[in-house]
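Hi L.,

You mentioned the student needs an example of a multi-chain input paired with its predicted structure. This one should do, with 342 residues in total across all chains.
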Amino acid sequence: VVLGTACTIQEAAAVRAHLLAQAALPGPYEIDGGSVEMVDTAGVQLVVAFALDCLEKGVPYKWVGRSPTLNAAIDLLGVGALLEYPA
Amino acid sequence: MTLDLTQFHEIFFEESFEALDQMEAALLKLSAGEVDAELINTIFRVAHSIKGGAATFAFNEVAGFTHVLETLLDQLRAGKRQVRPDIVDVLLRSGDAMRAMLSATQRKEAIDSAGVAQLRAELERIMSEAPSAAGSAAPEQRGRCAGQVGRRRIRAVAGLAHQVHSGPRASSSRQRSAAHPARARDARTAQSSVDAGGIPPVNDLDPEVCRLRWNLEVLGEIDRAACARGIRVGRERMRAHHRAYRRRDSRRGSE
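Structure written out for the whole complex:
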């Protein structure tokens, strides 16, 4: 799962489509948010939804990259704990 | 010759959103047990004006709901009913509902009719109660009113970035929360947490509707005016963010 440079409400439909396409593939998944330069609540919310889907289905995922911008948004919105697949 | 009223829709929406801001500001100043004629008149005028405009443009759901709200406001204005914390809360939620209905109408989307009907029933339930004369509220009632309004508004402001959804929550099976004390200015007196319980699966998620919720608990005596100021600052910051977004989007669109 690769998040592009922009992950805002403007790209939300495309990000959602990408997440749905990836979710159709067998897991576990790797989420790469290392390139994210712009992100807002809409983008973070989609990633949270994807993470919750994985949790419900019991499909593990791990983060292979998170840009400082993405980390800042996750911290600002307080959703960090929701984005870590339980060990 | 037939006059095409659709050309006035945008003006109506714009003015209605501004009027709802005024209504909300007035509601936040209302105190339980007090009858501030000027404030209640301000709120009433907003409802009356939106009802009239909505009826003119045949936005019937907006007009119908606002008519019920207006009736309750008329009772408060006439002193037939006392301002109570629960009434202020319902009025605030009614303002949110009107905003959501107008936004949906503006975007030519479906209105959350179930949510509106539920709120309408609450308004009608209040109106079905025996009228009570205006009087002084007990101190704890006043404090509770300020607290309820404060928590509610802060929660709404925290949902900034894009549309704040006020519809029914999703199933509890998806409820997750994460304590987030780092966001609190003083961890001894305040703590915020995020609630993702309203987020549906990606497949069902409208990515432009914010389903995340934040709860901010502040312990201690909080001055109503300070709370209202904080809310105003939050709202201004939210609007500044939106303006910046629009500017950025328009720049990106023209590239």
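You could point out the following to them. Chain B touches chain A through 31 residues (CB under 8 Å). The mean pLDDT of chain B is 71.

Best wishes,
N.
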